[in-house]
């Protein structure tokens, strides 16, 4: 299910290139993206979002929204990181080389649609303290200026994100869509995720999986915490919210993509679960731009 929620998410620009960070230092990241990965390749740091979180050498932080990273929580931001500070173009290979300095930061900004369910499952700052061998691969790739390096580094950061999320979910109170080990429940989740527009019922899901309606309803509710159709509704509404935010599709088109016959049916379900209509959500997204 993690693959479903990360589909379309891609790293942008691979590295923040800081020539030297000597105390006191503090960097403010406001790139307009929803998810950022940061790792200290050398030195120690603090990630400041809603509250300071320590980040040691080799540890990886996954951060939602704007944040500050500094040598000390009390150090005020000295530089606002912009998109130009990332190695973006294929011709800018030399600028993506590792600089010298006591503190070296690797940062990847992720663009593309990111599921609300994934964002809701994460704290403001997620820190994975177990070593990740992919960081060594990034360091090795950065040691040489090679053709295609930007693409390679971006894909390495994608792998870092997925492996870091898996490591964190394995050690913490992961959401039901990730943690369930019941094959019947896993199959039901997979079917709903793969084809949310299908007119699923508990009976049709049970037939497809090869179990009874009662067994599916009982085991799904026990594992996930809500009945299958309640989960399907919330999944469809989360997908609709993502589409309202990330596409220009009409409400009617989005309704059909997520399993509702028309815009009115989607609006009624959306209003019931979110307290506002799809049109109101889209207007809010445009205003917050």
From TrEMBL:
InterPro entries linked to this entry: AraC_lig, AraC_XylS_family_regulators, Homeodomain-like_sf, HTH_AraC, HTH_AraC-typ_CS
Lineage top rank: taxon:
Bacteria
Q: Which Pfam families match?
A: Cupin_6, HTH_18
Keyword set includes NADP: no
Query: Keywords on this record?
Result: DNA-binding, Transcription, Transcription regulation
Which segments constitute the HTH araC/xylS-type domain? 186-284
Keyword Magnesium in the entry? The reply is no
What molecular function does GO assign, one term? DNA-binding transcription factor activity
SUPFAM superfamilies in the cross-refs: Homeodomain-like
User: What is the name listed in the Swiss-Prot or TrEMBL entry for this protein?
Assistant: AraC-type DNA-binding protein
Its source organism is: Kibdelosporangium aridum
């Amino acid at each position: 299910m993690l693959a479903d929620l990360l589909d379309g998410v891609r790293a942008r620009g691979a590295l923040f290139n800081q020539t030297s960070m000597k105390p006191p230092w503090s960097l403010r990241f406001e790139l307009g993206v929803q998810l950022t990965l940061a790792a200290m390749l050398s030195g120690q740091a603090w990630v400041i979002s809603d509250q300071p979180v320590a980040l040691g050498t080799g540890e990886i932080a996954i951060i939602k929204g704007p944040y500050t990273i500094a040598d000390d929580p009390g150090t005020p931001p000295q530089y606002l990181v912009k998109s130009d500070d990332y190695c973006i173009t294929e011709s800018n290979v030399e600028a993506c080389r590792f600089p010298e300095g006591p503190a070296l930061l690797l940062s990847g900004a992720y663009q593309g649609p990111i599921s609300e369910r994934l964002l809701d499952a994460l704290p403001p700052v997620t820190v994975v303290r177990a070593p990740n061998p992919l960081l060594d691969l990034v360091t090795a790739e950065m040691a040489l200026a090679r053709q295609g390096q930007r693409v390679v580094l971006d894909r390495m950061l994608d792998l870092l994100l997925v492996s870091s999320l898996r490591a964190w979910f394995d050690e913490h109170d992961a959401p039901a869509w990730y943690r369930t080990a019941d094959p019947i429940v896993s199959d039901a989740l997979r079917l709903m995720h793969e084809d949310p527009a299908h007119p699923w019922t508990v009976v049709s899901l049970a037939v497809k999986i090869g179990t009874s309606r009662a067994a599916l309803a009982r085991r799904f509710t026990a594992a996930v915490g809500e009945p299958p159709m309640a989960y399907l509704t919330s999944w469809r509404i989360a997908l609709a919210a993502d589409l309202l935010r990330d596409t220009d599709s009409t409400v009617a088109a989005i309704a059909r993509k997520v399993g509702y016959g028309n815009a009115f049916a989607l609006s009624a379900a959306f209003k019931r679960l979110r307290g506002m209509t799809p049109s109101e959500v889209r207007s809010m997204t445009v205003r917050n731009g």
